């Protein structure tokens, strides 16, 4: 019997400061201490992993790199609680632990031949990034990629370098918004759900995927339905407090499922059954 | 399988024959009965009404080391520490044995939990059927019985002031009987009749029942009912219902030590605490006590049966007995049913 509670040893290979401030966000690039782990660790877009520091604890974090990016994993982590604050204090070369991958992935292969629309808010872009990178890498299989992304202020937007590059080379449609006017901001001003309505993306042959703060997800889902998207065209990914990651400890239980193993990815028809408890 | 007879004056001899394994049995500790690892069978107190202490710790201890770690050259070196001692639990109630069967389905699940499952494999359960069910018991409503056999290896039943009938239920149970030698004798027909009569008499003493008809659909349909607020208003969130529930399995994982060396522990947790579900951001999907009681009821009577095939309640009534503000699981479910039918 293998022991799912025992994590792999891993090393921080690179750190990128995405946002500053009290709730700063850093992207951690991580490799396993033992390269043989890659033979068994095969993540799919949308899956998560328990990232930990022995002596501090573990947090469930979505893997924000795509499986097409091989030899490393990336996690974009907001400095928020005990574990994430301790992670933010580490430097390149520091040892951490990783266990997983956990949860259901986005069915990206079922989406071949379709247009992909991602709608993200704040750090909620991180779980969508593996889809973005996967679709860009396999762009011949998809009919295009549009990204709607917003945050409180321009300083709170993550992966900006990558988004600007996509905008420049035309590999994806980039639509940015912030909650309030800011100096030097030439893009949209307003909340993500309203911006989505303003942009009026066509539901035709399109899959829409959203992640962000719970309140944003709630209104984005409503607005997608209003725009004519069918339940089977809409996906989201959730986050709950988790400890075990394997459907035992009970913390992420919501509406008959464990988010860690039955989620975090849900199609809208499944998500609707959980809605009251969110 | 066989039924044997053990005279009560030979109980000590029987327990002493269980050697080379640790023996857990009910003893009186600080004025209450609790299951403890015992060295001396003289301390065993079998005929006590006070069975409030749960025995789930035999496979799912309240605190358990998952592993020890120390920092090494390649990051943390993790030492797996899971030697599970062979254990015989003596005097367990049938409801508590059934609870293990219910928990087995969860700890097997999509990922096998090696700590629980290895302990279960190493544990033999010797039951004692209830001759005097308490006024809170309702095991027949959830498919149990005071002489239920599910999960047990041997079952002791009082057939007179001086003797037990001992039913052999599994090969593991038989091995214990074999090693006890001639301490036990073969039960005669009269003993077997008395054993059946005792079971029936006990069943007739059960006073409470709960209506579970269609409960797995009824509870979700009452999700937005105001009844949960009313129920939650009384609750003080102490969590004793979860800690003493034989089927509650929720836990937390905590680290003890520093980055250089320490251990990772699993500790019981309870869904009645607001911290149980609170996100690092402060967002809490179950803010109110009513929300948390609702989830507990849904989990036991709707989610668990749908996902794992068992109602996660054995009708022991400990949550009713121990609640300091007299929340009553049966009344809660009845109130919800009334609210839906209104």
List keywords for this structure.
heterodimer; A: 278 residues; alpha/beta; Elongation Factor Tu (Ef-tu), domain 3; Rossmann fold; seven-stranded mixed beta sheet; six-stranded antiparallel beta sheet; 7 helices; B: 342 residues; alpha+beta; eight-stranded mixed beta sheet; four-stranded antiparallel beta sheet; 11 helices; 12 strands; 23% strand; globular
What does this structure look like?
The complex is a heterodimer of chains A (278) and B (342). Chain A is built from 7 helices and 15 strands. Chain A has helices at residues 82-88, 129-137, 160-169, 192-199, 214-226, 259-262, 268-274, and strands spanning 8-19, 25-32, 48-53, 57-62, 73-78, 95-102, 115-121, 145-151, 173-178, 188-189, 206-211, 234-237, 253-254, 257-258, 265-267. In chain A, α2 links the parallel β7 (115-121) and β8 (145-151). In chain A, α4 (192-199) runs parallel beside α5. Chain A is globular. The mean pLDDT of chain A is 95. Chain B has 342 residues and is α+β, with helices and mostly antiparallel strands. Chain B folds into 2 domains: 3-53 and 83-204, no CATH class; 215-341, no CATH class. An 8-stranded mixed beta sheet of chain B has the order 3-2-6-7-8-9-1-10. In chain B, strands 5-4-12-11 form a 4-stranded antiparallel beta sheet, with no helix packed on it. Chain B starts with a strand and ends with a helix. The mean pLDDT of chain B is 92.
Major sheet attributes of chain A: 7 strands, mixed
Task: Name the biggest interface.
Answer: A-B, 44 and 57 residues
Helix count of chain B, per DSSP? 11
Low-confidence stretches of chain B: none
Distance between the termini of chain A: 35 Å
Could you give a short account of the major beta sheet of chain B? Answer: 8 strands, mixed
CATH homologous superfamily descriptor of the largest domain in chain A: Nucleotide-binding domain of ferredoxin-NADP reductase (FNR) module
Question: Span from first to last CA of chain B?
Answer: 50 Å
What oligomeric state is this? heterodimer
Number of self-contained structural domains of chain A: 2
What is the total domain count of chain B?
2
The SSE string of chain A, one letter per element, is: EEEEEHEEHEHEEHEHEEEHEH
Strand content of chain B: 15-25%
Order of helices and strands of chain B: EHEEEEEHHEEEHEHHHHEEHHH
Order of strands, widest sheet of chain B? 3-2-6-7-8-9-1-10
């Amino acid at each position: 019997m293998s022991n799912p509670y025992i994590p792999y040893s891993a090393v921080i290979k690179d750190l990128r400061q995405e946002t500053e401030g009290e709730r700063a966000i850093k992207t951690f690039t991580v490799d396993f201490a033992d390269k043989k782990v890659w033979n068994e660790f095969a993540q799919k877009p949308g899956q998560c992993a328990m990232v930990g520091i022995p002596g501090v604890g573990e947090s469930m974090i979505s893997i924000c790199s795509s499986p097409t990016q091989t030899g490393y994993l990336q996690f974009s982590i907001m400095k928020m609680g005990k574990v994430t604050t301790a992670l933010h204090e580490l430097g390149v070369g520091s040892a951490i632990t990783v266990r997983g991958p956990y949860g259901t992935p986005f069915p990206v292969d079922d989406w071949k031949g379709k247009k992909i629309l991602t709608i993200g808010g704040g750090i909620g872009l991180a779980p969508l990034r593996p889809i973005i990178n996967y679709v860009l890498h396999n762009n011949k299989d998809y009919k295009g990629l549009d990204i709607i992304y917003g945050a409180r202020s321009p300083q709170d937007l993550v992966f900006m370098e990558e988004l600007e590059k996509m905008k420049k080379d035309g590999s994806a449609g980039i639509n940015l918004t912030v909650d309030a006017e800011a100096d030097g901001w030439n893009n949209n001003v307003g909340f993500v759900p309203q911006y989505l309505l303003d942009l009026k993306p066509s539901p035709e042959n399109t899959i829409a995927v959203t992640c962000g703060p719970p309140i944003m997800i709630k209104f984005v889902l409503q607005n997608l339905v209003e725009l004519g998207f069918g339940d089977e065209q809409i996906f989201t990914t959730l986050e709950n407090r988790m400890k075990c990651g394997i459907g035992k400890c009970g913390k992420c239980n919501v509406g008959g499922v464990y988010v860690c193993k039955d989620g975090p990815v849900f199609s809208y028809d499944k998500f609707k059954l959980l809605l009251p408890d969110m | 399988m066989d039924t044997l007879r053990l005279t009560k004056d030979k109980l000590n001899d029987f327990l002493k024959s269980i050697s080379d394994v640790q023996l857990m049995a009910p003893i009186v500790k600080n004025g209450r009965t609790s299951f403890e690892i015992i060295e001396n069978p003289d301390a065993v107190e079998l005929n006590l009404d006070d069975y409030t202490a749960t025995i789930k710790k035999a496979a799912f201890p309240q605190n358990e080391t998952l592993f020890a770690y120390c920092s090494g050259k390649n990051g943390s070196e993790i030492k797996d520490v899971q030697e599970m001692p062979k254990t015989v639990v003596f005097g367990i109630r049938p409801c508590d044995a059934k609870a293990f069967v219910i928990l087995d389905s969860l700890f097997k699940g999509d990922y096998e939990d090696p700590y629980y499952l290895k302990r279960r494999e190493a544990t033999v359960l010797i039951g004692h059927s209830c001759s005097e069910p308490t006024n809170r018991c309702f095991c027949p409503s959830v498919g149990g019985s005071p002489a239920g056999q599910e999960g047990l290896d041997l079952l002791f039943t009082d057939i007179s002031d001086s003797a037990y009938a001992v039913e052999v239920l599994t090969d593991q149970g038989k091995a214990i009987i074999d090693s006890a030698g001639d301490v036990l004798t073969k039960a005669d027909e009269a003993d077997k009749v008395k054993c059946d009569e005792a079971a029936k008499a006990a069943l007739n003493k059960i006073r409470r029942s709960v209506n579970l008809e269609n409960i797995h659909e009824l509870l979700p349909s009452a999700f937005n009912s105001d009844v949960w607020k009313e129920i939650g208003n009384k609750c003080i969130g102490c969590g004793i219902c979860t800690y003493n529930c034989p089927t509650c399995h929720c836990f937390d994982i905590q680290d003890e030590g520093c980055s250089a060396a320490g251990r990772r522990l699993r500790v019981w947790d309870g869904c009645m605490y607001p911290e149980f579900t609170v996100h690092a951001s402060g967002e809490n999907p179950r803010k109110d006590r009513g929300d948390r009681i609702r989830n507990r009821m849904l989990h036991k009577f709707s989610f668990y049966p749908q996902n794992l095939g068992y109602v996660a309640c054995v009708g022991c009534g400990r949550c009713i007995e121990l609640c300091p503000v007299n929340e009553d699981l049966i009344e809660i479910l009845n109130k919800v049913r009334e609210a839906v039918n209104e």
